[in-house]
Every structure is written in C-alpha cells, then in structure tokens.
C-alpha cells in the first residue's frame, strides 16, 4: 500500500503533500485513521466457489433465475451469452483460475475499454453484462481502475440482488430513506458495491479504514483516467460513510463524516519536528523540549510556524552547510552561509519574510539563556552566543515601513476599482436571480424573453428520471439563438455567494476567518433610549482572541438577512455544521454557520480558500472587460484595509476605528490606513492634533458611553426628507443643504415618488425660466435635474435588490420562559 503519510518539503502545507499516484497536492491524506483495505472474516461466496468453474457452469449461473428472479428471461439469456463471450476471451490468457487470467488481461489491468474487446459490431454481443455478472458472482475481484475504466449500468441493484446479504439489504433501505438527492442515493449504492467487489469482502467487514482506502485508491484511478483534472480529487464513498455511521455500523468514536476522518488534526511537537528529518538527535531533542515549553503560551498555528523556522529553515540548513555541527555554537562563517541560504526560497524566488526567521532564531537563543538561569540542569548545556549580530536588526524599522508602504500602495490601487467589482457581482447576481425567477414561472418547453434574449425552459432526460423518483429537478434554460444550455440554478447559487462574500467583507471589515465563523447566533440587537433598534454583528474571537461587536449598516444587515432567508426558505432551521479550522487544525462544535452550503451529501462551511478562489474568479472575469484588473487580484484582507481607510479618512476617531476593527493597538489601525494625498494627511494630522490638545491623556483609551452616544446621535442628525446624509462623522453640512445636488445624499427608495414631484416642479420652473430668458436660472435648473435623475437611477437600481422579510417577533407574554 502506498505511504499516505508521505512527507514533502517545499510545498504549501495548506494543500498538503503530494500522494503517490496523484498529480496534485491534497490535504485529504493524513487523518487519524490509517487507510487500509478490509479483511474478510470469511470470503463471501453466496453461490459457491467459481474460481476454476467451467465456462458452461458460469454461463448458466450468470443467467440463473434463482439468483435474479425479477429479471426478464430475455435479459438473463443475454447475460448468459455475454458471459460466455467474456470467458472465451479470458481463456486466451495464462492462468489456472479465472482471477489469474483476468489479472494479466488488458481488460483486468484497466488498459482497454470493454467495447474494444468485444462488441455487437465484432462478435454480435457486448461483454459488459458478462463483466457485471462475474463481479456479482464473485468470480473475479476487479481493481478500481478496471471498475472506473468500464462503468457498469445498473451495477448496484444487480450486485445486491446476487449477494443474499441481509446487512447489505438493510444498508440499501437506509439509503432510500436518507435525506439526500436521488443521484447521491444511486452513487452510495453503486460505490458500496464497488468497495465490496474490489476488496472481496462482505459489508460486515467494511471499516472506516477500508472506506478511506477506497476513497484514496479511487482518486488514483481517476487521475490515471483523467490526468491533471482537479475533479479527480473528489472523495468517493462519502454517502456510504454517512449512512453506515447513522446505522451504528462504525464505532462510536468514529468521525461523523469522511472529510472529518481524512483531514489531519494537530500534530504533536515530536511530529512537527520530525517532518523535517533532522540528523542530530541531540538537537532534535532540544527543539522538542523548547517547542513543548513554548506550546503552553502560544496557539497551534504559531507553534507550527515556529517549528518550521527553527527546524526547517535554521537547523536543517545548518546541517547541510556544516554536517559536523554538534551544538548551537555557530561560527560566523557558517552563519553567513546560512544567512545567504534563507534569502532564496525553494522555488528560487526571493524570500520576503527573512526578518521573521532571524528574529525567531534570536529569541530562541535568548530564551535558552533566560531558562538556563532558572533550570541550569536542563538548559545550561545548550547555552551559546547568539549568532545573530546586532547589525542584522539595523534597518528593521525601515524594512517594516517599506512593507507598510507596499500595503498602502496596494490599497490605493484597489480602492478606485472597488465600485467596478461591486457593480459586477451585483449585476451578475441580479441577472441570474431574475432569470431564475422567470424560468421557474415558465412551463417546460415554453419560451420567454429576459433582457432582450430569448430563452426556453427545458428538462433533460436525466431531469425526467429524477422527477420519476420524486427528486428535485434543477432549473435549466436554453438560449434559443445559440442553443447553449444554462444550469441557471447553479449559476444563481454561485452568484449569490460571491455577492454575499464581497458585500459582507466590504461593509464589515472582518477578517476572512471571522467571515467563515459567522453564525446565526452572531446576529444581535439592542434598543437605544429613543426606541430605535440597532442591529449588531458579534464577531467571535479570532486573531486577537477578543470578541467585538459591529453595528450593522442597512447594506450589511440586508446581506446577512438574505443569507438567513436563503437557508431557512424551506421552513427548516439553518443546519448545524462543524467547521474545520485550518490554522488550529481542530473541529468546532456544530453551529448554524451562515456561510455554508450543501456539498454532495452533507452541508459544509465555506473554507477561506474557497472565498479566495471566488474573488480570483471575479477578478479574472473583470479583466476581460476592464484592463485595470489585468494582473490584479483582490484578497479578503484588501477589503479590510479599504474599510479601515474609509473609516478613518471620513473623520471617525481612530480609537473607535480600532475597536470596530478588533485591533488591540491603535497603531495597528494606523498601519491599515492608506493615505492618498498631502491634503488628506494634513487634515487628518490637524484633526488628531486638535483632539490631543483637548484631551492629551485620553487619545488612546477605551471609548466612553458619551462618545458612543455622540457617535449614534450623529446619524440621527443626518436624516433628511429624501433619505440620509453620508457626510463624515462629526461634521456639519458643507453644501448649504442643497441635498439634491449633494453627492452625500442617499435616497430612501420609499421617496422615489417625492423625486417625481420635485422633477415635475423643476420642469415647470424650467419652462418659465426659458420663457423669461433667465439663462442663469436655466443652467442651474438643468444641473439640478441632472443630479436628480442620476440619484433616481441609482436608487432604482438599489431598490431592485429583493426584500428580505424576516417576520415580526411576537410579543413575549408575561411569565413566558
């Protein structure tokens, strides 16, 4: 069996190592259960041993009415002739048993298609029914490559009928009532039969390790048949695992899903060190002891990073430079050579994070110095002069400033492009949503027009088969002109989550991990003294281990409400799902996560990598129509930096911005703020200077209740007839209340009728001004009309967003729990 714990270097640990037989890195290779095939307590031979049976006996058994009583006679007769044709083919290969002949044949090795061996065109008969019959009778044990190379129609029900296994019949019944789609029920039946046939066991012999072995071997077979295809990474057998776990077939300690069993959890300190293959065992022991002590005051992600720096980047490179190095007393020549090595990554690119490695090494040496004073018997033998010279730290502040400058420049490049990205995801979602709504109202075969394009609602033969099984049918439409078939349901699903991710990131400024950790329980509210209810979003502790609360804007609340409504539209609550933290390598408790969707047989929480792939796909689409996006990508953290920049540059006190961002140090927030010109810098510094003069002791302190009240009252003062004013915090109106012309005015969609009245009044005034030849008045009215119509179009576009009705909570009765 291939080593599924294979260790590699130079690969992203986020994707995991490359497994033998796969052409791509995979993280689904190193769970707590070691994959291994099942061992049969007794070889399943429901109709006797056929290893050396004659051709006539096997041909008769292949069409026996006693084995398949519900199969029509003509079909069984076809199976008999097909089996005879296959056996005559196998007789041309050496071997004493049918299994031996099968193993040496190209068909058994998965090298040829069955139709290439014999078909109705050559022999007058296909051998596919014969292959299926020999599998079902347990005459031959196929490999997964052979099974995948030649898929067998109706293999699952035919195999189950021939086994006479009550447990297998019970499994099939559980699959039929399991809450999954028909296609997944069919896959679960077929795949369990593939497991039993390929491992030559009964269902009672199947273990979690056997299913994991089947999943990995199945992926290898797919890679051979479809080299380079990422679709080959799909784990087969997930439905089997879910059903067997629900049946109680697995031990109680078994993870609930195959994915949970396949993902590697936290490694021990010894495993973190040993994955880099250190030769000097004494230094290995030191590193293990050092990391074990540091483990108590750090999280797993930081510990893993520290182990990589000290073990892989430091000591393993030292051993390559000087194989005779026995202790930590590093000569200046060796240190210089090592310092040169870490400037280049394994892929030949310059290493950006050199300072962090040097600082970790310096801390390692000084920690040993400090600990040796407390426990000399344990640490004193390893005390040595720190090889990092003081000159290494010179210019560290300047290099960090260069990093901040690059981040600021990145924000300056992306902030002007954010409206294009937002408009793209909104437009794509609106188009897909409206097309789906119109298609759902159209009968099968009928044509309709949407945005000037003619479509026809269609149902494929596969859809009709699903309908016959009582399963849900995906909505498909066909463009009449091009004939292209669009799976509009899937397209609308993808467009919705892209829109939801972008809107949540840009309106909240949360980190990507915090986005994925949002749950239904994160939505809270409180009532102000004036009776206004404020929606809040509680951000669970992540990077700083500090919970915070974000007041939700109307736009952010609309997005969160849309996600909740999407999950609960069938009347069921949001599913409780466990989330795997790829940093700490642990599973969460089952929670109603907001960013989750159905993935095959089970609901799954979006991973951070999935969100990043979404953003990359959006930028690729925009690059085709906007050259500014060529070679440019948005990351989730870009939205966070833009959010911080807009907060502070709009006049919000920086310590309040730090509270909203979840920063422990206000200087961190200042590092996030991208400044655009000297004018903004000057005004910002004047604002800070003025506040310091007023309260020199209180600039960097927690927010007081009075300041929060002022922060809330500011928004009350921005309410006007047509909507609300978006002027910066703490500033009066700068435009003499010329609201229609003011770019800060946000029109309330309910006031569109009032805009119509204003336009009619302006047109009447314009007619009078033109009649009186008041040219200055004409120019002013035309300008006002331009602003009014522009704001109306913008408001109408925003009003197209579907309203989300969450219902009105019933008043709690006195004494109710």
Provide key terms for this protein.
14 strands; 817 residues; alpha+beta; 51% helix; disordered C terminus; three-stranded antiparallel sheet; single chain; disordered N terminus
| Count of beta strands | 14
State the share of residues found in helices, binned by percent. 40-55%
How much strand?
5-15%
Residue stretches low in confidence (pLDDT < 50, at least 5 long) are 1-25, 808-817
Mean pLDDT: 82
Number of helices: 32
What order do the strands of the largest sheet run in, or round the barrel if closed? 1-2-3-4
Major sheet: 4 strands, antiparallel
Q: In angstroms, what is the radius of gyration?
A: 34 Å
Structure write-up:
The chain has 817 residues and is of the alpha+beta class. Among the domains are: 102 residues; 126 residues, no CATH class; 72 residues, no CATH class; 61 residues. The chain is built from 32 helices and 14 strands. The protein has a four-stranded antiparallel β-sheet. Strands 5-6-7 form a three-stranded antiparallel β-sheet. Strands 12-13-14 form a three-stranded antiparallel β-sheet. The chain starts with 54 loop residues before the first helix and ends in an 18-residue tail after the last helix.
